[in-house]
Amino acid sequence: MSKINFFLKDRNKDKTAIDAIVRFRGERYKISTKISVESKFWDDEKYRCRLVRDYSDAGMINHRLDQFEIKLKTIFVGYELKGLIPSKEQLRIDLSTEKKEGNRLSSVIREFLDKSSYAIETRKKYTTMLHWIEAYEKKFKTVLLVSDIDLSWYDRFKKFFQAQTYEKKVNGVAEKRHYTLNYWGSLIKCLKVVLNDAGKDLDVQDDVLDRKFRTEMEESDSIYLNESELKRIVDFVPSLENIHLFTKETRVHNNLRTIELLKNVKSRFLMGCYTALRVSDFKRIDLSNVRDGFIRIKPKKGVKLNKDVVIPIHPVVKAIFDSGFDFEKKVYEQKINDEIKKICKAVGINDMVSTTRTEGGKQIERTYQKWQLVTTHTARRSGATNMFKAGIPSISIMKITGHRTEKSFLKYIKITQEENAELLAKHPFFSTL
Question: What per-residue confidence (pLDDT) applies to 97?
Fold first, then answer.
């Protein structure tokens, strides 16, 4: 019988390939799995990745290793039955069972991720796309090959996507909703990147380049908080006197913990509002990022630039720094999303806002109180929009937000027609004869 274990190819590297070592009838075979892993998450005793929150790819990598092990065992059982001790060349041939033009799409996506240097947030988008591909295969009991991806398949996949629903709680009531057009566009964008990369070596259909095989997107109705609304948040101080706005809890020690959480969320959110950073960046700011009177931080997204973003310290952010804010107390993004809504509701950010977006192929209009739409991304959008309204040049703000074109930046910021008119009125053109 064969014995199969997995080992890191080079433990000294931050990210390294995984090799399989097979011992069979006194022979030792070293086989590349073509799977890579971040070394610090490898478990030498279990020969698998450690399943931890900080490494979202662990489960997928372990699954691939399981599949690879099954494949090896099947091959070596065949040798056992034949009484054969294979040469390394024979094993290589037997492992190459798939024709080049017939590669399974899900395998190609995984290999693309293995060799990519994307940041965690970007990798999540590609992993999500992979899950949708696998869900399609499961639904229709099929195996998708790269050569299967054409316009006909695009239409079938879109129909499948538009029929899917998820549950969203609104005011405590679960509603079934269809996925948005922008979500669809994100999936197809990732898929096209993978296929364009694979096209160098595999039989990718020309349809992938057709304009009908498109990344569909629509401009979102995302909100921002103006300076007046932000001042209400700045001025709000969670205390035992107003804790009833957030909880029905009566035990003082529990309420004190809630107050500390609210203060943490408020401060982190305001840092985002006055830096225009992504949540993955503003929630990890601490005093080590402050040098020479500026905040300096290397964004998690867009790491290819390998540059620090440098931002002046706004008085609100300086006040947070000077308050003795405990930077060691971390808070998850979802918790910020939950609690900042409560704070915005408590300070009266309750204007009615209508949103329209395409869900399941249909335009859906909904009306909310503004606080219901506030998320961590509202902080970033608020920062960019308020900087723009204050007269800071677009190119300077783009150095922070990472937008590569002014066209995309101007789509990102949110001002009403009235606010735009106020900006125009301040221009010398409207005040000179």
Answer: 54
Of 75-84, 151-160, 276-285, 423-432, the range with the lowest mean pLDDT is 423-432
- What whole-number distance in Å separates Cα of residue 149 and Cα of residue 370? 42
HSE-up of residue 134 (Cα within 13 Å, Cβ side): 12
Is residue 191 within 8 A of residue 144, CB to CB? The reply is no
Q: What share of the chain is helix, strand, coil (3-state, %, to 5)?
A: 50, 15, 30
Q: CB–CB of 394/388 below 8 Å?
A: yes
Token pair, residue 303, equals 């790491």
Tokens of 35: 């799977």
Q: What is the mean pLDDT of residues 33-44?
A: 90
Residue 385: Cβ within 10 Å count: 21
Report phi then psi at 83, rounded to 5: 65, 30
Q: Which of 219, 104, 216 is nearest to 154 (CA)?
A: 216
Q: What distance in Å separates the CA atoms of residue 153 and residue 419, rounded to the nearest whole number?
A: 45
Residue 303 above 50 pLDDT? Answer: no
For 42, how many CA atoms within 13 A lie in the half-sphere containing its CB? 23
Residue 178 corresponds to which tokens in the numbers above? 């269809």
Contacts of 388 (CB under 8 A, 6+ apart): 394, 397, 413, 415
Q: What local confidence, expressed as pLDDT, does residue 74 receive?
A: 85
Name the residue with tokens 């107003």.
Answer: 242
* Count of C-beta atoms within a 10 Å radius of residue 365: 9
Give the torsion through C-alpha atoms of 420, 421, 425, 427, to 10 deg.
30
Question: Exposed/middle/buried for 33, CB within 10 Å: 0-12, 13-18, 19+?
Answer: buried
Structural domains of the chain, ranges and CATH numbers in brackets: 1-97 (no CATH), 103-217 (1.10.150.130), 227-430 (1.10.443)
With 80 as the cut, is the pLDDT of residue 115 above it? yes
The residues with which 387 forms a beta bridge, in sequence order, are none
